[in-house]
Amino acid sequence: MQPDPTSSQPEIEALLVEQRTFPPDPGFAARANATADLHAEAERDVEAFWAAQARERISWFTPFETTLEWDLPFARWFDGGTLNVAYNCVDRHVERGLGEKVAYHWIGEPGDRQTITYRDLQARVNRAANALRELGVAKGDRVAIYLPMIPELPVAMLACAKLGAPFTVVFGGFSSEALADRINDAGAKVLVTADGGWRRGRKVGLKHHADAAVASTPTIEHVLVVSRLRDGCHMVEGRDHWWGETVDRQSDRCDPVPVESEHLLYLLYTSGTTAKPKGIVHTTAGYLLGTSFTHHAVFDVKPDDVYWCAADIGWVTGHSYIVFGPLANATTGIIYEGAPDTPAWDRWWQIVEEYGVTILYTAPTAIRSFMKQGEAWPRGHDLSSLRLLGSVGEPINPEAWLWYHTHVGGGRAPIVDTWWQTETGSILISPLPGVTTTKPGSATFPLPGIGADVVDAAGVPVPPGGGGYLVITRPWPSMLRGIYGDPERYRETYWSRFPGRYFAGDGAKRDEEGYFWLLGRVDDVMNVAGHRLSTIEVESALVDHPSVAEAAVVGKSDEVTGQAIFAFVILRAGHEPSDALALQLREHVAYVIGPIARPRYLLFTPDLPKTRSGKIMRRLLRDIAEGRPLGDTTTLADATVVDTIRENTGSAED
Ligand code: PRX
User: Chain-centre distance of CA 165, in angstroms?
Assistant: First the structure.
């Protein structure tokens, strides 16, 4: 729900009364990667701190000359340096004798498995890079990647990085239209996709979506297709190439292409307050530093850990904490292709037990689904290997935090509640597990080197105990460098609301001890199962249907997914409301954007509450969706409208 961050938040008030705190275990603290002096070191000279980290963590081909050039809001980090991300994530580990270390244990949903060492990964990345080169990809060319959670996904990302070819991963749950928009915005030359993948025991096709997309993407010259399902699929002669035929015959040697520190590494599209997704720009050195530093400090990763970030690589969490951060740190990771309930609700716990997973990173929405199924599922497995738990994607409610702590972490494992965004590239606010005393529901403090504040509408810092808007007060290495092709939108979206500071779009509150409590989005962006979707994108998808005249969409609080999409729809003359049409409209949104955007509730209404100037009053729609008493209605043009809508709400659920 869109909070008013300056008013009190009842759930959080209640928690503050509870005041439960969890200090770090002394044994854990004694061995922790990150110690308290990191904060002091960073504050003494923040640029010197990042420069030292960059020298220590990154293998450079040419050392950098300047640490930061800050021409607000445009940052350049580590200019003069050259490096290669794939070399840093793979080759250098093999060179220093870690070739036999496992990079990934991959588990397919039907139960097939692969164990991939760093040496295997190097050979796979090199063959894929050579294949892309054969298809015409060179430094600077963009590649789109639309794959399920199979090993070829990180391999393709690293192969692009090896060539200095920026990539954009499009989540496999997105529709062909969403894929086409992203390919066109990025101007991608090659698309890497698959025949399909497994989800909840079923084969889910992808190639037909890719084909539909490529019909309207003039820049795509070749499509490389992984055969995951082995059922064959439609292939276009000359354009489409099977991965197995094109990649497997390549040499397993490929020299990394050195790129400049600010070379574009990838674009990742995210929702904003307009219908056009934003291509978030991440560049090479700063991003690699931000992800590897935070992965080391926040997850406390040691050489013998088995680390599992259970996100999808199609979102930023997977980019930063399945692929780049962990591999830069030579970590052994788990990748699981499928759903947590397939074949049963203990699939994750079975994986934790079997592989001896020591670190687990997931989202509150997943934790709430597990809570709903009951603690018998985790109890049925030996989870004693787990020594650290992480949470990301939305505020974690204290009950979910405590359930995770008790039933997954055995009451021992510290929890790191990590706040960050696609734009920030890496975690900015989080406990350091050997240092910070945690409070359930609080992301605690900014990490070393990060400046964050909570300000009121005028940009003035709020005193302890107050709520307001979260801002980041200084540049950081993994920050977005812009919105692809749109510097003005970048400035306007992030740097104009509070001049000189980065506006994250989240409400936050700081308690008397300075702990940060995140309160959710303050703009028209919904957070559904930890993923951001803009209301306007869903509205545009609805209006795209021939029966719809106007639509307004809001997020309604949901026990499991955080928010669920509630759509109010006005039909065009000649169309009658019916259950069949409601179903058709929901499916239409899933078709246009992807299943994640399918509205849970859809209500036909003859009118929408508007101001006299014609602006839809979403605040009132949110009150209606939540079944709350209406807020201030003085600016409402026609008061009878809300009564009519309210009378109908009972029929909205799917
Ligand atoms: O609202 C915040 C929420 O997720 C948004 C970022 O979404 P996205 O770019 O998709 O990245 C998600 C994974 C990094 C933020 O603006 N969010 C993320 N982590 C937290 C959070 N809200 C509260 N607590 C968190 N730990």
Answer: 22
Could you tell me which residue, 4 or 159, shows the higher pLDDT? Answer: 159
Two tokens at 217?
């993407």
**CA 590 / ligand 1 centre spacing (Å):** 23
Amino acid at 16: L
Angle at 32 between CA 31 and CA 34, to 5 degrees: 145
Q: What is the rounded distance in angstroms from the CA atom of residue 432 to the CA atom of residue 448? A: 9
pLDDT digits (tens, 9 = 90+) for 234-265: 999 999 999 999 999 999 999 999 999 999 99
Taking CA atoms, 413 is separated from 399, 405, 406, in Å, by 16, 7, 9
Distance CA 158, CA 143 (A): 12
Q: Provide CB contacts within 8 A for 328, sequence distance 6+.
A: 57, 88, 89, 288, 291, 292, 295
Hey, how many other C-beta atoms are within 10 angstroms of the C-beta on 215?
11
Q: Which numbered atom of ligand 1 lies nearest the CA of 422?
A: 9
Q: Report in angstroms the alpha-carbon separations of 390 from 294, 321, 367.
A: 12, 11, 11
pLDDT tens sequence across 434-489: 999 999 999 999 999 999 999 999 999 999 988 999 999 999 999 999 999 999 99
The C-alpha atoms of residue 642 and residue 607 are separated, in whole angstroms, by 9
> Is residue 383 left, alpha or beta, with left meaning phi > 0 and alpha meaning psi from -120 to 50?
alpha
Q: Which residue type, as a one-letter code, is found at position 231?
A: D
Give mean pLDDT, residues 158-163: 99
Q: Please give, one letter per residue, the 3-state secondary structure of 418-445.
A: CECCCCCCCCCECCCCCCCCECCCCCEC
> Which pLDDT value is given to residue 297?
98
**Residue range 200-227: average pLDDT?**
97
| 8 A C-beta contact, residue 299 and residue 274 | no
CA of 98 to the centre of ligand 1 (A): 34
pLDDT at 648 over 50: yes
Of all protein residues, the one whose alpha carbon is nearest to atom 15 of ligand 1 is 421
CA pair distance 310, 322, nearest whole angstrom: 8
Parallel, antiparallel, or unpaired for β 264-270 and 167-169? parallel
322 vs 300: CA distance, rounded Å: 15
pLDDT at 11: 38
**Structure letter (DSSP) for residue 651:** G
Residue 326: closest CA among 104, 580, 174, 28: 104
Element (H, E) at 280: strand 278-283
For ligand 1, whether the C-beta of 430 sits within 6 Å is no
Strand partners, 253: none
* Alpha carbon distance 142, 344 (integer Å): 40
Tens-digit pLDDT profile for residues 270-288: 987 777 889 999 999 999 9
Q: Which among 392, 401, 470 is the best mutation to test ligand 1's pocket, defined by most ligand atoms within 8 Å of the CB?
A: 392
Q: Coil, strand or helix: which one is 341?
A: coil
563 ligand 1 Cβ < 6 A: no
Decide if pLDDT at 427 tops 90: yes
pLDDT, averaged across the chain: 93
Q: Whose CA is nearest to atom 7 of ligand 1?
A: 421
Three-state secondary-structure class, residue 626 = helix
* Whole-number pLDDT of residue 645: 81
Cα–Cα nearest to 361, from 324, 333, 389, 384: 389
- Domains in the chain, CATH or no CATH each: 525-651 (3.30.300.30)
pLDDT at residue 650 is higher than 80: no
Any ligand 1 atom below 6 A from CB of 442 = no
